[in-house]
Amino acid sequence: MTTQTATPVQPTRRRAKRTRLACLATLVAVGVMALGACSPEVDHATDLVNQSRTSAGRGAIPTNIDLYLKAQGWSQTLANDQYLHHSNLTDGNGYNWARLGENVGYGYSLEQVENAFMNSPGHKANILDGGFNRLGVGVTRDSGGRYWVVQEFMQER
């Protein structure tokens, strides 16, 4: 009977490579799931932003997972605090951005919040700004039935 002993270097390298690939695949899957796991309310609120833009002759803005996560977290903070205030725009934003913008609001329907944004010059300016090319929207509904909506805008360099 012949036995052969492999040197531990090769299996260790193969195992390390497989581990790295598995980690990468997991990160990609989590990112895809996070984008696809948005609530129907978040999807609808995002559609309302892009409908407002296209109605004004602007193009739709694609979503960005980091902006979505920031917006969703901040909408939860607003619902918990029960008052409107802005986040620190640069917190959690590791992108090479040129400009950032944020709208915060609440109401008893997503349409009501979007209409309020569009009737406010500053909020409307963010929504229609042609320089913004990434979007993240967060929505939290509190126990009283109010929707707390955060829209995060970014212009990448």
Describe the protein in words:
The protein has 157 residues and is an alpha+beta fold. The chain has five helices and three strands; from the N terminus they run H-H-H-E-H-H-E-E. The chain has a three-stranded antiparallel β-sheet with strand order 1-3-2. Helix 2 (40-55) packs parallel to helix 4 (110-118). The protein is globular. 28% of the residues are buried.
Helix content: 40-55%
Count of strand segments = 3
Secondary-structure-derived class: alpha+beta
Distance between the termini: 66 Å
Approximately how much beta-strand content do the residues carry?
15-25%
Radius of gyration over C-alpha positions, nearest whole angstrom = 21 Å
Kindly state the mean pLDDT as a whole number? 83
Low-confidence parts:
1-11, 18-36
Describe the global form. globular
- Report the sheet with the most strands, covering strand number, pairing sense and barrel closure: 3 strands, antiparallel
The order of strands across the largest sheet is 1-3-2
Run of helices and strands: HHHEHHEE
Number of separate helices? 5
Secondary structure elements and their pairing?
Layout: H1 9-36, H2 40-55, H3 65-81, E1 97-107, H4 110-118, H5 121-128, E2 134-141, E3 147-156
Antiparallel strand pairs: 1-3, 2-3
Helix pairs in contact: 2-4
